[in-house]
Amino acid sequence: MNIPSELHYTSDHEWARQTAEGVQVGITAFAAEQLGAVVFVELPKVGDRIAAGGAFGQVESTKSVSDLYAPLSGKVVAVNAALESAPEQVNDDPYGAGWMITLAPDDANAVAGLLDADAYRALIG
Question: Of 17, 61, 124, 125, which has fewest CB within 10 angstroms of its CB?
Answer without folding.
Answer: 125
